Structure formats: C-alpha cells, structure tokens
Give the backbone structure.
Amino acid sequence: MWIQILLVVAVIVIGLFLARPAGGDSHLAIRRLFMFAFVLVAIVSILFPQWLSYIANLIGVGRGADLLLYALVLAFLISVATTYRRNVQLNRRITHLAREITLARAQAEDALRRAAAVDTATRGDRPPVVDAPRRDDAADQVG
Amino acid sequence: MPERRSRVRAQPILFCKNGLMDSSAQVDPRRHSRDTWIVIPLYNEESVIGRVVAELREHFDHIVCIDDGSTDGSIAAAEAAGARVLRHPVNLGQGAALQTGFEYVRTQPDARYIVTFDADGQHRIEDAMLMLDLAERDDVAIVFGSRFLDDRTNPGWVKRVVLKTAVWVTNRTTGLELTDAHNGLRVIRTDAASRITLEQDRMAHATEIVLKLGRTGLPWREFPVELLYTDYSKSKGQSVLNSVNILVDLLVK
C-alpha cells in the first residue's frame, strides 16, 4: 500500500524535524512554503473535487475524503510539532528576560546595601575624625 | 581511566568511616564560610526554608536563595533567617533558578566555591563541608554528591529503579560515570560554573549540568552523601511520572 509507506515516512520526517536543532529562518520558510502549498491544494480540490479521488485511488486509498483525513492528521502533527518548538524557544527568551530582571534588581539592592554599610561606617568614624584637627577637611566633605 | 576514578571514589568513604567526621568538631566549622556561596533554588518551602538557612548560617556567610515565584511566605522566612534572596518575577523552574544563582555568584569577587543545596532540608550540611574539604584537598573543580556510594540512604525500590535508570541515561549522554543522578548537593568551583550555561529550566537541568560540567574537562569527584527522606521531602519529591517530562525535555530542544 502506497499510502502506508507515505504516511510512515511523513511521520518519521516530522519526528526528525522536531528533534533537529532549531534554525529560525529556515523553519519560517518551510512553514510558509507549506502554507502556500496548502492554499494551492485547497483551491484545486474545491474546483475539481474528483481530482482528490483520483489521487486517492492512485496511492491505494478508497475515497478522496479519506485522503483528506490523512492529510489533516499529518498537518495537525506538524502544527503540534512546530508550536511545541516555538514554545520552547519563547520560554527560553522569557527565562533570559526574567533572569536579567532578577540580576539587575539584585545588583541595585547590593549597591544600596553597600552604600548603607559605607554610610554607617563613616558615621561611626566621625568622632575620631572630628577629634583629629588635621582631617577636618575630610570630615566636612563626608558631611 | 575508570579504575582511577573508582579508587578515588572509595577514598571519601574511608574518609568518613575512619572517624574523621567525628573529629570534625575540633576542625573549624566555619572553615569554608568566606569563599563559599550556597545556592538554594526556592519555591514554596515556607515551612522548612527558615530552618535550613539558619543551620547553614552556622557554617557559611553567604547563602543565596533564588526565589522562583513562591506564592507563600518563603521569601520572608529565608530573609529572616539571614539569606540573600533573589526573586524571579515569574516561576521559571529549578534549573533556571540555579543558573540565576551561578550568574549572581559570578559577580561576587570573593567567591571560590558554589554549593548547590535543596531548600527542603534533605541534604546534610556535614556532607557539604566534607565535599568542600575534598574539593580543596584534591584541587578538583566539581564534587557531585551521590546517595548510592554507601548504604545510608534508602530511597525505596520505586525511586531506586527510577534513579538508577536516570543514572544510566545520564551516563550514556554525558560520558561520565556517576553513581547517582538528580542529586541536588554539588560543589562547583566558580571557574567551572562560569563555563556552563544551563538552558533546561525544569528538572532536566540535573542531567544537563552533569553533561556540561563534564564537557569542561575539569577534574571531578563523587562523594557519598545521605539524603534525609523526611515525610515533607517525600511529599515534595519528584513523581515517577515527571521522569517522562525530563526525558522529553532532554530530547526535544
């Protein structure tokens, strides 16, 4: 049966496509080509319904409607696969973004703490500084 | 190569059983306090995190909790106990929290070692101290904790089977020969930590971290640790089904 071979091969190709490392632009191009082909086939099928049945008979499927169903299942699988991958990439971006926010906030907090620590330290130093006449200028600057 | 490792692996066991651990009371309990940063991924552990941090504070100066969007009082509890808490604005996962911790510690000039520690109190601080001793003594960059190097830990047979399968998968993918996988207690020298970037946000990071640390080619050891399976940590623990998620996360990128 031709249809069985075709379907198995298609499922394997989709599976490999899913496991392949992501390449942004080529993925987008493939998706768009697929979309284009889909539109073409849809128009042809609407204008010449018997065409579907002819193809179906050729590869060992009883009716054109059955062939349509098989194609739909495959399209669904591709859709799930690409959506999943896009999700993974999107999540990765969110992670980077959230991490940047976390680290930036931590850095700001650390800077504040350090400033507060320096502040307390200089305040603690002040009496001896004031006592020592030579360092009056420095005390003024701190104040 | 494997022979050398197994010999090395046996050492720490002797190290404990010779009673060195008992005499560690005389050794300075704060010997690692200055150059070690404890990194704890924190997510809804309000009831235990305070005690875990307080106990760690007795040995270490720097405890960093990465709050992963907790919805309970975890942040307040950790801060009250004296931890530095970094906050993820949204929940990202344990792997993401660890990576955030690594990147934060990278900005600390005094940091030499990172200890990854679980928030639920199932790790023993004594084990972490001994792992740091080992890292210092043998000048290794990475020390993995393993619950299967001695018989102190009894995870139950279901968990044992799952973990041993995880170990098998990890060893196949990483090329290292570990006896435990997904053990949250690790010592990582900062130079090793800065050479890796964890991209697995969720639990699959435990395999990824072994893989990427292994690829750095830096010297590593395993060290026997005990996991305290309290009722609390059991209720929080990884479900067997989650190993399916981990596998898919690793395969599909």
